[in-house]
Amino acid sequence: MINVTKTFLPDQEQYLEYVRGIWERGYLTNNGPLLQELESQLKSYLGVDHLYFCSNGTIVLQIAIKALELEGEIITTPFSYCATSNAILWENCLPVFVDIDANTFNIDPAKIEASITDKTTAILATHVYGNPCDVEAIEQIAQKHQLRVIYDAAHAFGVSYKGRSLLSFGDISTCSFHATKVFHTIEGGALISNHPELDKKLHLLRAFGHQGDEVYLYAGINGKNSEFHAAMGLCNLPQVRSIIEARAQIFDWYHEGLDWEHMSRPQLMDDVEYNYAYYPVVLPSEEKLKGVMKALAAQEIIPRRYFYPSLNTLSFMPQRFDCPISEDISLRVMCLPLYVGLPQEDVKRICNIINDYLSA
């Protein structure tokens, strides 16, 4: 079977060497030495000053909202994974959905201001498929209306925009290190902040909000991660460059092999060093998409409808917002298999199945 993704695993002996060290120290969690080393290496790799390694890519969104003391309405995108909007709901805020740009699939800055009210406190935007949002336009709007900016950068590890890590934009950026990501720690996530005054607060919020056993400062949560997860990160981080190069090669094979007369894909922003996190294609209709998926499944090839459905259409959303572009794209988009080690002949076979179905 060819799945939409396959987890990259480092040299087993290298990981076991870290595990043996954990056994010897008997220090498994609570800000251990491997976790601190991973945070240091991540800060160096990304060129950022303030980064905290946490347990997953959802809890970091919740901590970011809590750290910025957001209330009321948060403007966000309907074209993302449900973790983005769920985090807003869990923190008792209202997600206000603004439609996406038809070319990039990111939130459309030209439509944001019309949705700002006296209850709006922030913009939470997703760098969809690792493709940068229009960060300059969003920053300008945020400054004009005194809003905070959080970027859900779950897909964006290893992406640079104008020579700067994409994770360094916004008041806070969050990242996911789930096993399916370009860089992973099995489960994990990170908080990256541009504000020194948030540094101590983020540190405390991810660990119950107290110092020692006597000084309690915030209503924190358990967002810590373990030495075992940090060990996987320390093994994988030196491999990121070669991982991205391998993914870029597969990306090119798809680009050359697919018949673009019958489909399209999102447009990458300019001045970007991309990480090739996903390979999304947009079909002419949902009927065609389902037909292609059925044809691929018959050959044990499993793509993913990512993102579907458009988040503004979820039944549990407290308020309805119309986002016709997101609603349309979500019905017709899917991500094709993309992972290190996917053979060229399998990519050609995937392309041929799709091309043959759409040209029939």
Provide a descriptive summary of the structure in words.
It is built from eleven helices and 14 strands. The protein is an alpha/beta fold. It has two domains: about 10-240, Aspartate Aminotransferase, domain 2 (3-Layer(aba) Sandwich); about 240-360, Aspartate Aminotransferase, domain 1. The protein starts with 11 loop residues before the first helix and ends with a helix. About 45% of the residues are buried. It holds the Pfam family DegT_DnrJ_EryC1. One of its GO terms (biological process) is polysaccharide biosynthetic process.
Q: Structural class of the helices, strands and pairings?
A: alpha/beta
The strand line-up of the biggest sheet is: 1-9-8-5-4-2-3
Task: Describe the largest sheet.
Answer: 7 strands, mixed
Highest-level CATH class of the largest domain: Alpha Beta
Arithmetic mean of pLDDT: 97
CATH topology of the largest domain: the name is Aspartate Aminotransferase, domain 2
How many domains, in number, for the residues?
A: 2
Give me the CATH architecture of the largest domain, please: 3-Layer(aba) Sandwich
Short synopsis of the structure:
The chain has 11 helices and 14 strands. The chain is an alpha/beta fold. Strand 10 and strand 11 form a beta hairpin.
